[in-house]
Amino acid sequence: MRYLLSEYVNPWVCGRIAFRPAVADPAKPFQRLSDWRARSGAFVVMWLSVPYLGVSGVVDDLLSNSSYNLAAGAFYTIAVVSAYWVVAQPLPQDKAYQVRSSLQRAGLSFVVTIALGLAVRTEVFTVPGIGWLLAIWSVIFALSMMWHCLRWVFGASDAHPLLGPIVTTMTAFTALAIDQILDTGGDKRPANLQTLIDMGALASVCLLAAIEFFYISYKLGKEPSSLPLRDPLSVHTPRRPKHLGYGLPHPPERPTHRHRHSPPVHVGPDAPMNKLAIFGAAGVIICWPASLVLGIWALRQIARTGERGRWLAILAVASSAATMLTICMATAYVK
């Protein structure tokens, strides 16, 4: 799709072109709930914080939190979507395109953030005239990038619907941890008010992500690909007449293949070990976000195929969740 030059000159529109997924649908139920939660949460935070920080302080706090969310979200999007790309091969052409687009958005957000940081350090924006105009354009573009990247989770849900809630939850925990670690004590708000704001935002994000995750899992479980499978050795031979007419015999019948979505079913102690469960259990130490995704994926795959490794998958999910909770609780005592 081609865009007019005026659309690239407008920084907000340019950010929307670069970072909003092409299939983004703001009318989706959970997208509406997420928008309502974000806007109402921002209003509550401003209402509670303005008496202590002032308007400029609140804006700085919101921008810093958004930058933490952007960095964490880009990292987890690259990790989780890359893991999905590896384990879900071969992917259909449209899904492969969505995966590549999501990775490109996450990588581009990193590049833009680094470029803006270098521009600030080199004092490019302090040049009279062109520097000021470039600074205004860059600030609006950065706001557009944050808004569209965080609102659509870098398009991770387009690769697979379950990836969006997973990335959102990981991003919320990590952004809170980064905020606690980098806190220099300059926040003038009371400690109990700051804790209420942080924990309230984290709880609302995680609750909405959990509801979306289980709802999507239920909907996916109703699809034909997740229905109980037949015995792979049994075939379906339709009842057909023995003769086609005029005394000619019917050609030999060939057994039809089983459903194209049905994976092989393995039963008994000789069933093979699920590879995703092995990678998930082994990846807890290396990258626990990817281990969490692999563990959940392995549980769904084992339920369909009957492979061994269910306890390894549960171990991967439990260890990753415990790691996430430990990081969050540890950063609460950094102060």
Overview of this structure, please?
The chain has 11 helices and 2 strands; from the N terminus they run ααααααααββααα. The chain has 335 residues and is mainly α. Strands 1-2 form a two-stranded antiparallel ribbon. Helix 2 packs parallel to helix 5. About 10% of the residues have low confidence.
Shape: globular
**Strand residue percentage:** under 5%
Put simply, the count of helices is 11
Helix content: 55-70%
Give, in spatial order, the strands making up the sheet with the most strands: 1-2
Q: Major sheet, described briefly?
A: 2 strands, antiparallel
Number of beta strands: 2
Q: Give unreliable regions as ranges.
A: 224-248, 253-261
Give the C-alpha Rg.
25 Å
User: Structural class of the secondary elements?
Assistant: mainly alpha
Give the overall pLDDT as a whole number.
76
- What's the end-to-end separation, in Å? 50 Å
The SSE order reads HHHHHHHHEEHHH
Give a topology summary:
Layout: H1 5-9, H2 11-19, H3 29-87, H4 93-121, H5 130-151, H6 156-159, H7 163-181, H8 191-221, E1 243-245, E2 248-249, H9 275-282, H10 288-305, H11 310-331
Antiparallel strand pairs: 1-2
Helix pairs in contact: 2-5, 3-4, 3-5, 3-7, 3-8, 3-10, 4-5, 7-8, 7-11, 9-10, 9-11, 10-11
